[in-house]
Amino acid sequence: MINYLWENLFKKREDIALKILSGNILFQDLNSSELKIVSDFLHLRHYRPAELIFRQNEIGVGMYIILKGRVDILIESDEASKTDNEDFITRLEEGDFMGELSLIEENSRRTASARAINETTVLGFFQPDLKNLLQSHPEIGSRVLLRLSQVLGRRLSETATKITELKKQIKIIKA
Q1: In the prediction, which pLDDT does 77 show?
Q2: What are phi and psi of 33, to 5 degrees?
Q3: The CATH fold of domain 2-174
Q4: Residues with Cβ < 8 Å from 73, sequence gap 6 or more?
C-alpha cells in the first residue's frame, strides 16, 4: 500500500511537469512521449521565499520553468540612495520561464537576478542537458533549439522596440 502511495505522488508530480512543459513555447511541438524524454533531462529545484534562484552578473548555466510559485526579476539599481539596491522588472508565475539565453551562450552573464516570492518549485534545463538531448535525440533537440531561437529573436525584437520608444521619449523630454 505504501509503495502505491509514493508511486501516486511521483506520478502526480510528473503529470504536472508534463502539463507545464506542453504549455511552454519551447516544448509545444513535442508529443507526450517526446515530452517524457525531455523531462528526463530536467532537474527539480525548490526555493524558499526571498531565496535567490540566480544573481545578476553570475555565469548562467541554464533556464528555469516555474512549476509552482512566483518569481521577481530584479536588476541592480544605479541609484546610490536606494537602500535595497534593486529595481523591480517583472513578476513571473507558473508556466513562465527565465534564463533561456544561457542555454546557447557560453559563459553568458545573467542580465538580472531572480528571487522566489513564495515557496517556489522550478524545473531546471541546463546547457549540458540541451547538448545531451541534441546528441541522444537530435530531432527532439533540434525542435527545442528552433523554438528557443524563435523566442530569443522575438525578445530581441521587443527589446529593440522598447529602446526605440525610450529614445523618442528622451528626445521629447530634452526638447
Answers
A1: 78
A2: -70, -35
A3: Jelly Rolls (2.60.120)
A4: 88, 89, 90, 91, 92, 98, 112, 113, 114
